[in-house]
């Protein structure tokens, strides 16, 4: 057992939580405890918000955009120099295969570099004047950004919001998920010498700390990633102070396969999309909508490819699918497998798992999934895939759109016009045509419907999320008096 981080990171200091309560961090591959982390509460959030506000007012807001560019590059360098250690830590606390953690840390580095470039390139406008008045807009930071994140990509979730928030001139209080607090604390440690005290604060904890942050009157902007029901709670608590909220929420994404789809590409791409991160990916395709003409061939190929996947501990280089991140997640996903069987879906493939107490769930493929089944409509967030057939293009679009979510969607077809038609009619924030989601900084990512509000990973849209517009009307007295 390592008890390396028994403290919170507030105002540049490592302090125990006010309650003196701690949570055990478990290794998902064994179910065994390997670290203790502080369980922060409302009093710790209060101290952190106060520190972030003070730091914003006294230090960080004085930094020029050019200085912030340099700082963000230094944060990227610090993550890069410690990438192997961070990836290993992520695998330890989340369970995912090491090669997936390495991609995640790489994405975090890209985040800091990208928004380093953005820090001095977002600015306001001057507007057509009225007589001797000149109107201009300036883009100002909110002050303290309150951020709450889940456990499925810990380093990238930190960077996704911290990088643009700092680039725009804000400070931050971050609450990581109770299951995976260590990557965020380690990143705070790496940034300790690079950021003034109070610019970045980390308060691990559960719902109490999260709710204290999302309802705090001194938080100027909220950036939340998590499930859609929690997103609703966050919106409600933000309502009291009319705090603007960016929400990156759940998905129940569909991929659609027409008879002219190139299955040589589509099948491996879909397997990767469905089972990457053990299916604990908001972007993954949990629903495969297959035209009835190609159903048998598609399913045979899909199962054949899925059969190749190895489930095992994240530190084994042969592992493709690691354990799920927590007991709670294990219970939820295995419960959905039983729901699927009870609903009458046809379980055509179930892989194997290693022995032991880890939270391993094998890939499961259900065929004959009907649109009224729960496994068709509810986000499972695990390696459990539904296959449903359709006859017409219209039916494929309606089936895709019938769920309450709208995060990603994919179309596989050799007919460019049809692919475009379908893409335009999918009610999702990100459509993939003849490809599958593999991240990518610089491209807006976010949801329609109950999948969220706002876009991350983008330049203009994301920088707008972390700034507010002030209009200044200036009496120039410049009307010529001849
Ligand atoms: P969750 O909503 O239960 O928890 C996320 C975070 O919110 C945790 O830190 C948790 O402690 C905190 N929290 C819980 N209740 C809270 C409350 N009332 N007030 C404030 N904070 C609270 O999420 P989860 O189910 O553990 O995470 C997985 C979900 O995240 C999935 O739905 C997934 O699709 C979604 N997700 C979305 C994206 C995206 O970019 N759209 C990315 C990753 C994950």
Task: Explain how this protein is built.
With 482 residues, the chain is α/β, with parallel strands linked by helices. It is built from 15 helices and 22 strands. The chain has helices at residues 42-58, 65-81, 83-94, 98-119, 154-167, 182-191, 207-214, 228-239, 263-275, 295-307, 327-343, 374-377, 393-401, 416-425, 460-465, and strands at residues 8-10, 13-15, 22-27, 32-38, 126-130, 133-141, 144-148, 171-175, 200-202, 221-225, 245-248, 253-257, 285-291, 346-350, 364-367, 384-390, 405-406, 408-412, 430-433, 448-449, 452-453, 467-475. It has a seven-stranded mixed β-sheet with strand order 14-15-16-13-12-18-19, sandwiched between helices. α1 (42-58) packs parallel to α7 (207-214), α2 packs antiparallel against α4 and α3 runs antiparallel to α6. Nicotinamide-adenine-dinucleotide is lined by residues 148-150, 152, 175, 177-178, 206-207, 210-211, 214, 225-227, 230, 233-234, 248-251, 282, 379, 381, 407, 447, 452.
Our Rg estimate from Cα atoms comes to 24 Å
Shape: globular
How many strands? 22
CATH superfamily placement of the largest domain: Aldehyde Dehydrogenase, Chain A, domain 1
- Hetero groups bound? nicotinamide-adenine-dinucleotide
Q: Mean of residue pLDDT?
A: 96
What structural category arises from helix and sheet content? alpha/beta
Number of helices: 15
Order of strands across the widest beta sheet? 14-15-16-13-12-18-19
Poorly predicted sequence stretches spanning 5 or more consecutive residues: none
Distance between the termini: 83 Å
Q: Describe the main β-sheet briefly.
A: 7 strands, mixed
Number of domains: 2
Proportion of residues in β-strands: 15-25%
What is the CATH domain class of the largest domain?
Alpha Beta
Q: Fill in the CATH topology of the largest domain.
A: Aldehyde Dehydrogenase, Chain A, domain 1
**CATH architecture annotation name of the largest domain:** 3-Layer(aba) Sandwich
Q: Helix fraction?
A: 25-40%
